[in-house]
Design goal:
491 residues; alpha/beta; Rossmann fold; 5-stranded parallel beta sheet; 53% helix; 12% strand
Length: 491
């Protein structure tokens, strides 16, 4: 390069840095407005090894108040987190309303590397593509502003940068064996990166940055982030419209048509309970060895007997291998994120059992009827929850959902029993009585939920619970049958 060309390049970079500085000042000026409007922002920075992803993020955050952002590198997944679903570390890290999260590599890098390492099959790769599109769309529809950047460099530039890093004792650690392998397999990575971006360019668009010119890449990234924030501040929080995807749904009866007369004698109950609990304990050991995760979901009418049912399922289990997840009204930090976040963060590790006492289905029941979310939100949720559960079962989880069912007369009898028994009075609240008054509305919502979300991979099981003994035995039998089937399929 001639002296004149070097001077021109230097002047060009200086101009780019000045433009970046002006853009940065505008972005910093929007911090308080972003927080006031409760707009969460996700910036995914992907790209080649040695392309300058870290320095680019440093440019973007250099003047932002540290209270407003976080930077995570979830592609470096701890061994413990490898026992969770693919999207777990990324879903766990989504920001609260009004904050910015920068992902230093993420779901793209993890997927491409594992695919080229042949750690996942072609079918698993396709499943991941679909899961990524679902994940990004759910976040976008829930009001998240998302920017996806890919920092691009050619093979020669990557080689030069790696050689420079490796020649310096202070920086040689930054070039890993994985990075060197990527450089050797540059063509395969190029093809797979391009394919991944093509298949995940909707609903959130990819933006390629010229990593060969750091000043230009920083200017373009800052410009794109500022445009995203300003659009969000002008147009407000985006709320996605309901849509319908085809899932293999099971036929479900209306609640009013369910026969609630089944019952058991005390003697039969005791015999069955002892036998089934012993078998469940044996199966718990087997699923731990096979690393099969199990998710049991309980919903039902107030006073239907969920608590007692859960205790009979939990009793034979090794306490080191299961957790009961009681779900109450969301805490402020949970309300400040997409509604599925608090369930992503409660998932079991492979080989463990999670028992949810109330679930994500509150979205289409209490939140729907009490006006805690918009109509678009709860109507969209049916498909979102089917997608979530499909991702869990593709990970290998056994997912069973129990609706614990009683009639109104039985509920009233149990309410009165609680009210008249001092040691049980804590179980009965004013909210229980209010919900009872809305029985017809809840029944309509539950019927719609059962019809739209009982899939072959994650079925709803209606459990007749006018007789609690019968209900407990039915659940135990159902769980045992599902675990035995899962173990047979993994032989």
């Amino acid at each position: 390069m001639s002296k004149e060309d070097k001077q021109a390049k230097k002047a060009e970079n200086a101009a780019l840095r000045e433009e970046t500085k002006a853009l940065r000042e505008k972005l910093v000026g929007h911090q308080q407005a972003l927080r006031a409007k409760g707009l969460p922002v996700i910036v995914l920075v992907e790209g080649w090894a040695a392309a300058g992803k870290g320095s680019l993020i440093a440019e973007l955050i250099s003047e932002i108040d540290p209270r407003f952002y976080n930077v995570v590198s979830p592609v470096i997944t701890p061994e413990a987190e490898c026992r969770y679903p693919f999207l777990y570390p990324y879903a766990k890290a989504i920001p609260e309303n009004g904050k910015i999260m920068f992902y230093d590599s993420g779901w793209m890098e993890d997927t491409v590397r594992k695919y080229l390492h042949r750690e996942i099959t072609k079918d698993q790769y396709k499943q991941r593509i679909r899961s990524v599109n679902e994940f990004e769309r759910q976040l976008r529809d829930g009001g998240y502003l998302i920017l996806k950047l890919f920092v691009d460099i050619d093979r020669d530039e990557q080689r030069k940068r790696m050689e420079a890093l490796r020649s310096n004792y202070e920086t040689e650690w930054r070039v890993t064996r994985e990075d060197l392998w990527q450089h050797r397999e540059y063509k395969s990575f190029r093809e797979t990166y391009d394919s991944f971006m093509e298949k995940t360019d909707k609903p959130v668009k990819w933006h390629r940055l010229d990593g060969g010119n750091r000043a230009l890449a920083a200017r373009d990234a800052m410009k794109l982030l500022l445009e995203l924030v300003e659009t969000g501040l002008t147009e407000g929080r985006y709320v996605g419209k309901p849509f319908k995807e085809s899932f293999p749904l099971l036929e479900m009866p209306k609640l009013r048509d369910v026969d609630l007369s089944p019952c058991l004698t005390d003697e039969d109950y005791r015999k069955e309970l002892k036998k089934l609990q012993k078998r469940l304990g044996e199966l718990h050991n087997a699923i731990y060895r096979k690393k099969i995760p199990v998710i049991l979901c309980y919903e039902g009418w107030d006073a239907a007997g969920k608590g007692g049912n859960i205790r009979r399922v939990a009793k034979p289990l090794d306490p080191r291998g299961f957790d009961v997840k009681p779900i109450a009204s969301p805490e402020p930090h949970e309300l400040a994120r997409q509604y599925l976040w608090r369930f992503w963060t409660r998932l079991p590790r492979s080989g463990h059992i999670a028992i949810f006492d109330r679930t994500w289905y509150g979205r289409v029941m209490v939140e729907r009827l009490e006006g805690f979310c918009s109509e678009d939100d709860w109507r969209r949720a049916y498909n979102e929850m089917n997608e979530f559960e499909r991702q869990l079962t593709e990970w290998g989880a056994v997912v069973l959902k129990f609706w614990i069912h009683i009639d109104q007369d039985t509920q009233l009898q149990r309410f009165n029993d609680r009210q008249n028994t001092p040691e049980k009075q804590w179980k009965l609240t004013e909210e229980d009585w209010r919900n009872r008054e809305k029985w017809p509305q809840y029944e309509e919502a539950i019927d719609e939920m059962l019809q739209k979300t009982s899939t072959k991979n994650a079925p709803w099981i209606i459990v007749e619970s006018n007789d609690k003994k019968y209900a407990r035995i039915k659940v135990l039998r159902t769980v045992i049958a599902a675990l035995e089937k899962a173990l047979e399929e993994r032989i």
